[in-house]
Amino acid sequence: MSAKIIDGKKVSEITMDLIRDDVEKWVGAGNRRPFLKVVQVGTDPASTTYIGAKTRACKRVGIDTDTTHLSDTVSAKELKSTIRSFNNDDSIDGILVQLPLPLHLSSHDVIESIDHKKDVDGFHPMNVGRLTVDQPTFKSCTPAGIFELFRYYSIPVKSKHAVVVGASNIVGSPMATMLSRENSEGKATTTICHKYTKDLTQHTIGADILVVAAGQPNLIKAEMVKEGAVIIDVGINRIADETTEKGYKLVGDCDFNGLKNKASWITPVPGGVGPMTVAMLMKNTLLAAKKSIYPEE
């Protein structure tokens, strides 16, 4: 058996085209163009790269954006004061604070200071809580992007056994919540594990759908999955590779070469889940501009 490739790059292009059309209709109806405010604390190179990708995506779909750069020595008080000023600015629809933050800042504290109606990352406790009780909410972009891939490729979730490896607030936990919800998208029997789970294989081997977001290269090997499983690899890890120009290559949390002849569907790294995350951020920013999640009273 040879797995079919889940092409996140292709699906994200299709999704972004639809969002761009929607943005132009919104603006054409006399509304202000959606605006995303990005906050970067410090100069972490990976964060700069991610912000660059988000800025290009905004340009592509017709969303206005700019980035406020703050020193990596900024105090929590100053950072939250800056965020509050954006909360109160009616010309700003979405606010995104790029993570990770310097060690002296609490990401929980900072995320909570964002107005939940502008939290286009879907990380605010209000939005996370609404997700768990099936209320309209900004969904965390990576899980939302994975569900978009399930829809596009007609991969069924209902009644399947889904196993999520990785319990982060950004991917694993919201993914498990969305898979298990009693709604039209969910209804999977869901197990949540992490890289410290004792005898991980006894859990992964039974998965119809395996979502891996553990941040450990090649954690999942062929002998850990059953024939015909759907493998969603969220991991993105740099490993040294002297044969490449950059001296490294990007790999996922799954052994792609070992799994590609065993899975029914599999996401590549890069080009699988990553592009969908950015597309969902664009979707959330448009929803924020339209006040679709939280209508104005």
Walk me through what this model shows:
This protein is an alpha/beta fold. It has two domains: 28-115, Leucine Dehydrogenase, chain A, domain 1 (Rossmann fold), CATH 3.40.50.10860; 141-274, Rossmann fold. Helices cover 37% and strands 16% of the residues. The chain has helices at 8-28, 45-61, 76-87, 107-113, 125-132, 141-152, 172-180, 201-204, 256-259, 274-290, and strands spanning 4-5, 35-41, 64-70, 94-97, 161-165, 189-193, 209-212, 230-233, 237-240, 248-251, 265-266. A six-stranded parallel sheet has the order 1-11-8-7-5-6, with helices on one face. Strands 3-2-4 form a three-stranded parallel sheet, with helices on both faces. Helix 1 (8-28) packs parallel to helix 10 (274-290) and helix 2 (45-61) crosses helix 10 (274-290). It is globular, with a radius of gyration of 19 Å. The N and C termini lie far apart (55 Å). The model has no long low-confidence stretch (mean pLDDT 95).
Topology:
Blueprint: E1 4-5, H1 8-28, E2 35-41, H2 45-61, E3 64-70, H3 76-87, E4 94-97, H4 107-113, H5 125-132, H6 141-152, E5 161-165, H7 172-180, E6 189-193, H8 201-204, E7 209-212, E8 230-233, E9 237-240, E10 248-251, H9 256-259, E11 265-266, H10 274-290
Parallel strand pairs: 1-11, 2-3, 2-4, 5-6, 5-7, 7-8, 8-11
Antiparallel strand pairs: 9-10
Helix pairs in contact: 1-10, 2-10, 6-10
Name of the CATH homologous superfamily of the largest domain? NAD(P)-binding Rossmann-like Domain
Question: Whole-Å distance between the termini?
Answer: 55 Å
Helix content: 25-40%
Beta-strand residue percentage? 15-25%
| N-to-C order of helices and strands | EHEHEHEHHHEHEHEEEEHEH
The 3D shape can be described as globular
Q: Determine the mean pLDDT.
A: 95
The largest β sheet comes out as: 6 strands, parallel
Structural class: alpha/beta
What's the helix count? 10
Q: Could you please say which CATH topology of the largest domain applies here? A: Rossmann fold
- CATH architecture call of the largest domain: 3-Layer(aba) Sandwich
Q: How many structural domains?
A: 2
Radius of gyration: 19 Å
CATH class of the largest domain: Alpha Beta
Overall number of strands: 11
| Largest sheet: spatial strand order | 1-11-8-7-5-6
Poorly predicted regions: none
